[in-house]
Amino acid sequence: MQTDTWQQRAQDLRKSWFGNVRGDLIAGLVVALALIPEAVAFSIIAGVDPKVGLYASFCIAVVIAFTGGRPGMISAATGAMALLMITLVADHGVEYLFAATILTGLLQIVFGYFKLARYMMFIPRTVMLGFVNALAILIFMAQVPHFVGLGIPTYVAVAVGLAIIYGFPYINRSFPPSLVAIVAITVVAVMFNLPLGTVGDMGELPDGLPFFGLPAVPFTFETLQIILPVALTLTIVGLLESLLTASIVDDLTDTPSNKNRECKGQGIANITSGFFGGMAGCAMIGQSVINVKSGGRGRLSTLAAAVFLLFLILVLGDYVSMIPMPALVAVMIMVSIGTFDWSTFSMLRRMPRTDAVVLIVTVVTVVLTHDLAKGVFAGVLLSAVFFVRKLATQIQVHHEDQQDDDGQISHRTYQVRGVLFFVAVDNFLDGFDYSARIPRITIDLSGATLWDSSAVGAIDKVVGKLRRVGSEVEVIHPAGQGARLMDDLAAYDDPNASGGHH
């Protein structure tokens, strides 16, 4: 039996690495070419040298190829993560970013170890949609300073870049259009010496392999106070985006993924990145889709992307520094347009109003605070409030009367249906008539579910009020958890408790 499982494992391993060598290598090259401009652009968003994003992309992609839970998914430096680093880098410098990156990795391993990925299902689809759309808006907003007000040549270059990106696939589908745009604009800018800002102006590019180093920060509680809030946000956003991307790749390839392994893998990758002078990253929705559409399926595609990326930077570093910024701006605008879910507008008209409010609040919160985690938190909180409010209206109280020979009501039975908990208490109390003097009353809770002590308190209150007008009250207990709550907490038959016999 043991050998069977080992053989099965070896077979799975072989399949995930070498089941699709040619497809994985080609897809890896396509992804690497598309990664260079993005990694540079994300570094610029975060306010660090381009080499930080490039080293991060290399380290994260190499490590995740071995440790990740979703073969064929690409992880590297991302826009979502870069947006969360801006203030930390501006206030404290890049070394604190490395420290925060390592802490992010540790937190993600803890998340994976405690199998917290399953709690991602508490995030409703509307919040996820809001998260993705807000991310697209933030990526676009981060581009604005790089082209607005910089003169006509810059505007023209951005427009030409976008025209090539969206037009080129109609001519030829084998080259990544963003790469074609970058090469074309760079060649023209260098030949005609156009007055455009370049990548080289934004900071230094890698001149060798990344090397191991401890972040140059004081190891004090004060440092922890600075980096912990950032690391927590990075952890949550990184895992959110990675698990969201894993689900998308699962759907695209019709294969399952191991979400907890992915959490731990992301953690190990970020720790590595932090020690090798990179920023925190996560799975990339756009690049992962490009990888799968280009034929990448296995772990080899992710590793190939990393190796090609490093090779290209080291060999072509001098050329990369000549790339005009407007070319990168065009690529990032394409990323933001591709990230935005345009079906949202038609869905907003059709979805329930509460869902629409949640979606809009998520997007607005993110755009105003520039913090994806706050937006997700606001969206989840609002969804919970709407859900509870909806449940509270489900409680129903109906009554049936029995009459004596004189036509007087001798016995009334109240049937309670639905979930009774703190929010539903008022609706429950309103369901009873306290003025009618009826000799016998039965409150039948067998069709109700009790959730908390407020429910039992409400039942006590009703029984007390009915007894005060002289009725004899009997309560039929609910089943399961409700019965236990009643046994433990109900005070209406306890002579010492208030609300008992008067």
Q: Please state roughly what percent of the residues sit in beta strands, choosing from under 5%, 5-15%, 15-25%, 25-35%, 35-45% or over 45%.
A: 5-15%
The structure class reads: alpha/beta
Shape: elongated
Spell the H/E element sequence: HHHEHHHHHHHEHHHHHHEEHEEHEH
Which value, in Å, is the CA radius of gyration? Answer: 30 Å
Tell me the helix content: 55-70%
Put simply, the count of helices is 19
| Low-confidence segments | 498-502
- Mean of residue pLDDT values: 86
- What is the end-to-end distance? 72 Å
Sheet of most strands? 5 strands, mixed
Strand tally:
7
In short:
The chain has helices at 2-18, 21-46, 50-67, 79-92, 94-113, 125-143, 152-167, 177-191, 221-253, 259-275, 285-293, 299-320, 325-339, 344-350, 353-369, 372-392, 425-429, 453-468, 481-489, and strands spanning 75-76, 282-283, 396-403, 409-420, 440-444, 448-450, 472-476. With 502 residues, the protein is of the alpha/beta class.
What's the layout of helices and strands?
Layout lengths: L1 H17 L2 H26 L3 H18 L7 E2 L2 H14 L1 H20 L11 H19 L8 H16 L9 H15 L29 H33 L5 H17 L6 E2 L1 H9 L5 H22 L4 H15 L4 H7 L2 H17 L2 H21 L3 E8 L5 E12 L4 H5 L10 E5 L3 E3 L2 H16 L3 E5 L4 H9 L13
Parallel strand pairs: 4-5, 4-6, 5-7
Antiparallel strand pairs: 1-2, 3-4
Helix pairs in contact: 2-3, 2-4, 2-11, 2-12, 2-13, 3-10, 3-12, 4-5, 4-9, 5-9, 5-10, 6-13, 6-15, 6-16, 7-8, 7-13, 8-13, 9-10, 9-11, 15-16
Question: What tags apply to this protein structure?
Answer:
502 residues, alpha/beta, two-stranded antiparallel sheet, disordered C terminus
